[in-house]
Amino acid sequence: MTTSQLVQEIKKKKSFLCIGLDVDLNKIPEHLLKEEDPIFEFNKAIVDATHHLCVAYKPNTAFYEAYGLKGWSALEKTINYINKNYPELFTIADAKRGDIGNTSTMYAKAFFEDLAFDSVTVAPYMGKDSVEPFLTFKDKHTILLALTSNQGAFDFQTKNAEGKELYKQVLETSKTWNNAQNLMYVVGATKAEFLADIRQIIPDSFLLVPGVGAQGGNLQDVCKYGMNDSVGLLINSSRGIIYASKETDFAKAAASKASELQVEMAQILG
Amino acid sequence: MTTSQLVQEIKKKKSFLCIGLDVDLNKIPEHLLKEEDPIFEFNKAIVDATHHLCVAYKPNTAFYEAYGLKGWSALEKTINYINKNYPELFTIADAKRGDIGNTSTMYAKAFFEDLAFDSVTVAPYMGKDSVEPFLTFKDKHTILLALTSNQGAFDFQTKNAEGKELYKQVLETSKTWNNAQNLMYVVGATKAEFLADIRQIIPDSFLLVPGVGAQGGNLQDVCKYGMNDSVGLLINSSRGIIYASKETDFAKAAASKASELQVEMAQILG
């Protein structure tokens, strides 16, 4: 998917909501556990109930890998289901990968070709040659970790590294990489006040913003400091939406929570 | 596996060799492609031919994920085969994971419980709460990226961050985390001269050292600067060993290459 297709979808739906599909078998409704593939059945129901309210889905790979082969199979079925039934949705493999060049190429193949996601999250620690292999894929997007939503972000990301915080070094340096136009960035909603500075460095890039909801981030603040002329934001909510109910009405309850955010977003978009 | 069991095995075999199982279907012998699971058959043959020469195996997860479900299945069969037949071998999931706390717990379950690896590589960018969930597992080891073997290591890892290079900040800070005794570190062989400084900060920790062989690192230099009283090194070679031949003699050729390194290591151990 191209960035302009994503922007078009945002304007059409008046939503820049991304729903995180972080499926934990201990948290989903009990009646689904009888199904052959509870994870996929859960995702399918959530997607069918919410696709008109959001523009992106973001399965976090950890939650699938934890269930081994069955988990990976559920991930594959989930992305195939979304791509087949809702091809207008932007898909994010939240995988936080990154390795030496020939290895990053294999990760890129895994998520862009084998699983056909539109984008993947990547960690910047190993530098240019660990990220550029992802950037060579046409109409695919690499979402680089810049300033994450957790407390540990203050351990290294905000350290002053030769005149500016490390996450700003990451933003500035990554702009010089080959095919940098395929970069987006992760910036946590819990650090909304940093967004004004971040927009100075990358005014045009899309930001994936986790941390609204369960982690305590505020939507209004994120939009105030982070929105640009093309919206430029994907606000993710995972637990706050998908675990709204543990009963048979779980999909409806998720849609209701998603709708609350979508209404708020429509107001902001004006 | 405990660290002292690993040290015992190193002394018994006079080897601190780790063999990287980075299986690329374009590089393995053609006759294996007829097998139902070529990746597993390749690994099985390599492991059977080399297990007496090395102390660890390190599958890189990217090479398995790139083949989707079949790849993940081959990874599962490989770790199960090693654990069943050669339980004395230390196993490393080279996965370079790391995410917010509840997600890192899921990754830890994936690699320590579902796949039963002894260790996993983890990226430090997201800080303490992204790494500590891995450290809570008893007799499991978390191998934190410090200074990697690639050129991109100089983009951020060697930046001066408040008085010292970022990778040194990572080493020092990580020593203060809960269950830090379960940490090991990745330090690339291509930067052997940095090892003297690194040993000042973490004299006792095991180091996983990639980059000998295909990437140009030198074994003698690594040992000169990096070895401690308990050896404290796992030297990884992947492509230089497993792709020594593309013919039917590939396993024998791999053993021959592994033996060259083991002989050199035995001499160093004295």
UniProtKB/TrEMBL annotation, chains A, B:
Pfam families: OMPdecase. One of its GO terms (molecular function) is orotidine-5'-phosphate decarboxylase activity. The keyword Plastid does not apply. The active site is at K96. Its EC number is 4.1.1.23. The keyword Nucleotide-binding does not apply. It catalyses: orotidine 5'-phosphate + H(+) = UMP + CO2. Pathway: Pyrimidine metabolism; UMP biosynthesis via de novo pathway; UMP from orotate: step 2/2. Keywords: Decarboxylase, Lyase, Pyrimidine biosynthesis. GO terms for biological process: 'de novo' pyrimidine nucleobase biosynthetic process; 'de novo' UMP biosynthetic process. It comes from the Bacteria. Residues 16-254 form the Orotidine 5'-phosphate decarboxylase domain. Belongs to the OMP decarboxylase family. Type 2 subfamily. This is Orotidine 5'-phosphate decarboxylase. The gene is pyrF.
